[in-house]
Amino acid sequence: DLRKQARQLENELDLKLVSFSKLCTSYSSTRDGRRDRYSSDTTPLLNGSSQDRMFETMAVEIEQLLGKLTGINDKMAEYTSSAGVPSLNAALMHTLQRHRDILQDYTHEFHKTKANFLAIRERENLLGSVRKDIESYKSGSGVNNRRTELFLKEHEHLRNSDRLIEETISIAMATKENMTSQRGMLKSIQSKMNTLANRFPAVNSLIQRINLRKRRDSLILGGVVGVCTILLLLYAFH
Question: Does residue 51 fall inside a structural domain?
Answer without folding.
Answer: yes
